[in-house]
């Protein structure tokens, strides 16, 4: 049975924890709003890019002059998985969800006899995947110092991916990230980057116009492909930031609630014990007085 | 209105401009290009340079873009810029930094083709710096 003093200390420490989780929740809420705004602001660019890409890809066709980034190497042996996770923990199952999803893919690909290479973006994913697949991880990128996710950060990742591709280090590249559905729901998603997959809906819509290309379509496409990859990675990173903040917000919210419950339980037993002690002292005094009579 | 069209300037981070304009000058790789309403559908690459936009009210706004891509239709024009800022907000230190980076790229280029590309980019930046 803990003493009164112990209980008092426990209550004080849980209260302090509750204050911290509450503050973290509020910070996450503010950051979430900013992240959502950033994700929304970036949307027009990626939409236009997708439309233009599918348009131009149609014009060029599958001919020999199509860039390798689009058609791939023609093989399907070596897979590169780019796993994007958050930099920090304390956000519920956010990181482990992405990591689990990636791990399933790794297992499947290995079972099919493919070679798998992993590139970790974000510290937490690296920490989780390192345990099982440390031999497969060829590269890691940290954004620990980054306050606001910018296009330059995405460029850094994309440049590494493309440099690896040009060296012939892999045939297929897939991007793993968490799609931001709402504050309480983030869905781990896999998206194939190289060779490019085209959005069929966008193609149908913009196919009507006959364009002049200046310079030639294939030259433009060559220039456009790396950009499109950068944009896709950028979008994934932004979605991830928004998702992380959403997950952190709900995790901290439930932590605050749990702390509240714990405080009420602890104060209940604190009060009970105090009452018992008072009663005990009263009995001692009264029985002492009785004995003197 | 036949003599105005919708112009959009988009950078990966945000939508900078979306409005009715009468005339836009864009720095295409094959030379400067003035886009007016009912332009033939064209797609073109863009080199670092200044985009000047003439709105319906006759005001001229200028933006600096660092490479990108333009999609021109008779009814509108969309400019996807790698990075874009209004001329008034341009940060000279940033520009100088970019030129320095470009110079380094020229120095470490592995093949002649890459070197030529880097050199071209560097020259375009220098021209741009002189213009603003």
TrEMBL record, chain A:
GO cellular component: plasma membrane; proton-transporting ATP synthase complex; thylakoid
Protein purpose: Produces ATP from ADP in the presence of a proton gradient across the membrane. The gamma chain is believed to be important in regulating ATPase activity and the flow of protons through the CF(0) complex.
Cellular compartment(s): Cell membrane; Membrane; Thylakoid
Gene Ontology molecular-function annotations: ATP binding; proton-transporting ATP synthase activity, rotational mechanism
Keywords: ATP synthesis, Cell inner membrane, Cell membrane, CF(1), Hydrogen ion transport, Ion transport, Membrane, Transport
HAMAP family to which the protein is assigned, alphabetical: ATP_synth_gamma_bact
Species annotation: Hoeflea marina
UniProt name for this protein: ATP synthase gamma chain
GO biological process: proton motive force-driven plasma membrane ATP synthesis
Bilayer topology: Peripheral membrane protein
Keyword Cell inner membrane: yes
Family: Belongs to the ATPase gamma chain family.
NCBIfam families named among the record's database cross-references: ATPsyn_F1gamma, PRK05621.1-4
PANTHER family to which the protein is assigned, alphabetical: ATP SYNTHASE GAMMA CHAIN, ATP SYNTHASE SUBUNIT GAMMA, MITOCHONDRIAL
Assembly description: F-type ATPases have 2 components, CF(1) - the catalytic core - and CF(0) - the membrane proton channel. CF(1) has five subunits: alpha(3), beta(3), gamma(1), delta(1), epsilon(1). CF(0) has three main subunits: a, b and c.
UniProtKB/TrEMBL annotation, chain B:
Gene3D superfamilies, per database record: F0F1 ATP synthase delta/epsilon subunit, N-terminal
Subcellular location: Cell membrane; Endomembrane system
Chief location category: membrane
Molecular-function annotations in GO: ATP binding; proton-transporting ATP synthase activity, rotational mechanism
Domain ATP synthase F1 complex delta/epsilon subunit N-terminal: 5-84
GO cellular component: endomembrane system; plasma membrane; proton-transporting ATP synthase complex
Coiled-coil stretches noted in the UniProt entry, renumbered to this chain: 85-131
Keywords: ATP synthesis, Cell membrane, CF(1), Coiled coil, Hydrogen ion transport, Ion transport, Membrane, Transport
Membrane topology, from the record: Peripheral membrane protein
Protein's job: Produces ATP from ADP in the presence of a proton gradient across the membrane.
Quaternary structure and partners: F-type ATPases have 2 components, CF(1) - the catalytic core - and CF(0) - the membrane proton channel. CF(1) has five subunits: alpha(3), beta(3), gamma(1), delta(1), epsilon(1). CF(0) has three main subunits: a, b and c.
Stated family: Belongs to the ATPase epsilon chain family.
UniProt name for this protein: ATP synthase epsilon chain
